[in-house]
Amino acid sequence: MGTEALISLAWTGEISSPIVVSGYVPSRIGDTYMWPKLKISDTTVRRGSWAGIDSGEGGSGEGGSNGDKQQEPGSWFYPGHSSSHCPRPRRWTLASAISDDQITDESLVEFLEELRLHRLRSNERSVSRFLLHDPSSPSDEAPTCRLPGGTDISLQPNNGISDDVSKAWSTARRTLLVCRELIRTERHYLLALNVLAKSETQSPPPPLMLSRLPALIHASTLFLDRMEKNPSVLGVCDAFIQAYEQLEEAFVQWCGVVGGFFTADSPGDPSAVKRSNSAPMGSSPTNRDGPMTLKKRVGSWGRMMHSRRINADGMASTVPRNPKNKSRSRLSVRDLAILPTQRITRYVLLFKDLLIHSPSISIRTTIEDATELSMSLARQADRAQDHASFRMD
């Protein structure tokens, strides 16, 4: 595919260089995904993106065995999918690989590395908006490209990839893994919310909690669906910006009442913290620093949950395989009630990570906007938890 094409794909979800990828869906052997070698066909060229990379079937370079019949862009298929006796197999795309929990980060990186090393013919080594061809370069010299920030590099078709391009790819690959973490943890967080909504906990959630869950689930679903369509940096930032209004309303409403779920007044949760034991778990019963706010109480509980590794990332592993142990392995209401506030913190950390590693490119403004919105969400959540009606005397 070429390094420059993958850099563009990681940042924006689009590839400006014309490419066609021909190959098959990865075969699952046990818990390991294996990819057969992919071939690049340069006889057919199209604009590529997460949902727009053409793929032939047989890798013949002439559109495969389907003749003029075009396959759905952006997809790889199992061998034999053209048989009229077999049902159409599921589609596999780069976008789905990014968010697939069964594909490890290491396997994904290995696949991307192999994919980028398939070089296009030298006259098709056009670069995307991040590597702009310099028309002033003499035709008898190697083409010159400009990296983000104005650095000019020379592209030598047969002399490997320059250090500048390699560094740019290393950064893009890192940010792509951050996007992957954002998508996968959002999915696990959404799973946890649904567990709570279905009352699959040690004790039934209180009615007030159940009334706040639909908004959280709707906002998270909206955000996740948009990220999965374009798991690039631009894609996840745009998804957050577009879903922000719903996320803000749901999180602020939740944080405004979450403190009540950690007191003895929380109906339906016998594990709630008792007023007589107002100090956080593991501390002295005597509170010498004055009244304990529910915000501090929730924060203390959140740190304890983190130390126990009870969070959205671990939700998938909490489902019991033995139905007889289902009731014993269920989480408490408090184990799950803390997740939305932890999720807000993760948004801030991940979007800041994307911003720190983003070069001076056109989409940086979008990354900055998403980062600022995540911090604004955190501030509003803090204010909601600081409400005077949730202070304990």
Automatic annotation (TrEMBL):
Gene3D superfamilies: Dbl homology (DH) domain
Renumbered residue ranges of the record's region Disordered: 49-84, 131-159, 269-294
GO molecular function, one term: guanyl-nucleotide exchange factor activity
Domain DH: 174-384
TM segment ranges: none
PROSITE patterns: DH_2
Coiled coil (UniProt feature): none
Biased composition (Gly residues): 55-66
Compositional bias per record (Polar residues), positions renumbered to this chain: 274-287
Protein name, as recorded: DH domain-containing protein
Organism (species): Macrolepiota fuliginosa MF-IS2
